[in-house]
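Peptidase M48 Ste24p, pasting as requested.
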Amino acid sequence: MQRRSMFKWGPILIALVSLAVFYFRSESFENPITGRETRLGLSKDEEIALGLQGYNEVLSRSQVVESGPEVEMVRRVAKRLVNVVGDEGAGFEWKVSLVRSDEINAFCLPGGKIVVYTGILSVAQNEAGLATVMGHEIAHATSRHGAERMFDQGMVEIAMKGVQGSIEDLEPSQRQTILGIIGAGTKFGVLLPFSRKHELEADEIGLYYMTKAGYEPEEAVAFWKRMAEAGGAKPPEFASTHPSDDTRIRRLRELIPQIRERASGISNTSR
Ligand SMILES: [Zn+2]
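Structure tokens follow.
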């Protein structure tokens, strides 16, 4: 009688208790624009500190554009957007930089540090286009998506540790198979759908911010179409952190009428 190849329940129970502790210790967060409820793996202070550190790192190895019409436009758009963010940006110290790079990219780090690459300006084409991408990136920060991702990853890590412990006596090949299946399952079943949810939420809130700041929301549709053309070959939607261009554009179109109303303050009391 061999006592090898045993599945152990102890590590699973420990993982379940750890998951419960991790969950209940985390901060809950209700998105003020979409109403979506989440839990966060970082405090606001931690986010702000990490965001500042990341910002300084990026700037230290980049060519920052200090003057000229391009950076003036970026600053102008940032100012108009930040003005409409309101309480969601409480505690944020907003900063914006334009970096000389061909990369088609822009981001807003936790705590309100915005970086725009000159490469995206040709896709943005105008201020409303720039407001689309900057509004989207600011929405990631005000929705605290980074902290939510830390929470999700923390939960997945604890669960995986439990599984690893419970199968450590199994044959190596069996272990590999089980871990492979669970790894793919969490990636495609948990982490990527979460990222896509973040993208769509940032689209909605970004559209709201840009509209409230006085930009034409139809320009967001035009921007994402140009982005799709600039994007080239892409992985299929299920494997990507980004929603497919068709999904994104269709959803933005659907949202425009209600966003116009909310941005003009007509239905602000509905929530
Ligand atoms: Zn995004």
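Note for the archive: The pocket of zinc ion is lined by residues 136, 140, 199, 202 (CB under 6 Å).
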